[in-house]
Amino acid sequence: MAFKPSALKPPGAPLRAKQRNPLVDSEDVELLDASHSLDTPRKEGVLPLAPVKAWHCQLALALTQTAFCVGSVYLKSCLRKVDSANGQVFHPIIYAFLREVTAGPIMCAMAWFSTGLLPKRADLARVMALGLCLYFNQLFYIVGIDMSGVVVATCMQPTIPVFTAMIAVLLNLEAGSLQKFIGIALAVGGSICMVLGGVGGHHTAAEGRHLMLGNMFLLLNTLAMACYYLSAKQLVAKYPAICVAAWSYVTAAFCMGATALLFVEQSGWEVPRQLWGPLVYWIFICSVVGYYVVTWATQFLPASQVASFQCLQPMVGTVLAFAVLGEEPSIWDLGAVGVFAGLLLVVYDKKDAKESPVMQGMRRILSQQKLLQGQLSGILRPQAKLKTAKSGGKGAWQEVV
Q1: Residue 177: alpha-carbon gap to chain centroid
Q2: What is the Cβ-side half-sphere exposure of residue 59, based on CA atoms within 13 angstroms?
Q3: Is 186 contained in some domain?
Q4: Considering 180, 263, 352, 360, which has the largest number of Cβ atoms within 10 A of its Cβ?
Q5: Domain for residue 6, yes or no?
Q6: Closest Cα partner for 97 from 62, 128, 143?
Q7: Alpha-carbon torsion 382, 387, 388, 389, what sign?
Q8: How far apart are the first and last CA of the chain?
Q9: 286 class by beta-carbon count within 10 Å (0-12 exposed, 13-18 middle, 19+ buried)
């Protein structure tokens, strides 16, 4: 180790040393930064998050899920006005593409003017994976709601917290608890009752194969949304929520555009005039506002708890379908009681406040790094003072290089 002369500094000034800790892998620190934003400094120049009350996030999520249901009913009611006999065609892929290609630039502009951040090269793969989850989520939902209907589409949504909690617990990202699984089981059981009532009451005349294919798309939609929640949880620890939502929307728009070019004929690119209203609603309310709120809430709540608010869609969707579309409720719709009971159990699960073993291990890594840095600083300072005194006794502090 060599000492180079440096500018004189007043006595008592701290010694500046460039230290590296070979015992702690930089990937561990990177993983810690991406997974526990409240305990470590946020990268990319983002200020630490201000504390937000849990009920604020929960209320915002409840309103967002209600807005999603309103959008579904609005779209379905306008689809009935499309006159296919006069050549008007609704293509779900084009509808989804126009939604994303319009909402994406709006969200990117909001993200750029508010933060000015771009994703790091090391995070591009995560951003693309998140965009793919969003792409499959929206594509399968638009196709599924066209083939199955609003009641089945909304009642399928409570499977999202099932997939989310299952994947999170299997990957040790969240702590599992009996209360959480009982709540999910109640919510799913209530939703199954509502699905049976919806299919038996309104969709009996639908062709069996057509309905089964639509339900399969809706199931894939829920799986993609569960993956979106878990992937977004990692990125919002490093970037603001508006940036994560905007980047994922741009990726989804690119994928949807490629899909439209491959599978949609030129005649299918025209959007009927009756669907302009729902399209504007989906762009600004469901996309720009809705996905920003969902991504923002994942910064403060566990991913499984955010996903559990999807359980509100069956009840809200059934009420709106009865009021707007004329779909009559049945005895099966009492499953909404189970939906609300399960949602309350998941929301008030106290074990969510505890860290999973993975998070505890990350804390130990950070503590070990700080301890070793303190020990190295204590060793280097006396050595620097001794060599400074031997070099001429001028009281100048030397810089370790």
Answers
A1: 22
A2: 5
A3: yes
A4: 180
A5: no
A6: 143
A7: positive
A8: 7
A9: buried
Residue with structure tokens 């189970």?
Answer: 338
Rounded to whole angstroms, the Cα distance separating 186 from 339 reads: 6
| Per-residue pLDDT reduced to its tens digit, 230-286 | 888 888 888 888 888 889 989 999 999 998 888 888 777 888 888 889 999 999 998
What single-letter DSSP state applies at residue 39?
A: T
Parent domain of 244: 54-357
Residues 6 or more apart in contact with residue 266 via CB below 8 angstroms? none
Angle subtended at Cα 268 by Cα 266 and Cα 269, rounded to the nearest 5 degrees: 75
In a domain, 385, yes or no: no
Residue 19 resides in a domain: no
Longest dimension (CA), the chain: 98
Alpha-carbon distance of 370 to 182, in angstroms, equals 41
Q: How many residues does the chain have?
A: 401
Which residues fall within 8 angstroms of residue 300, CB to CB, at 6 or more apart?
Answer: 49, 52, 54, 57
How many domains is the chain built from?
Answer: 1
Q: Are 149 and 333 in contact (CB under 8 A)?
A: no
The CA R_g of the chain, rounded to the nearest whole Å, is: 27
Measured between alpha carbons, how far is residue 101 from residues 61, 251, 282 in Å? 24, 10, 12
Give 353-392 pLDDT, tens digit per residue: 454 444 444 444 434 444 445 554 554 444 444 444 444 4
Q: What's at 348, amino acid-wise?
A: Y
Question: What pTM was computed for the model?
Answer: 0.61
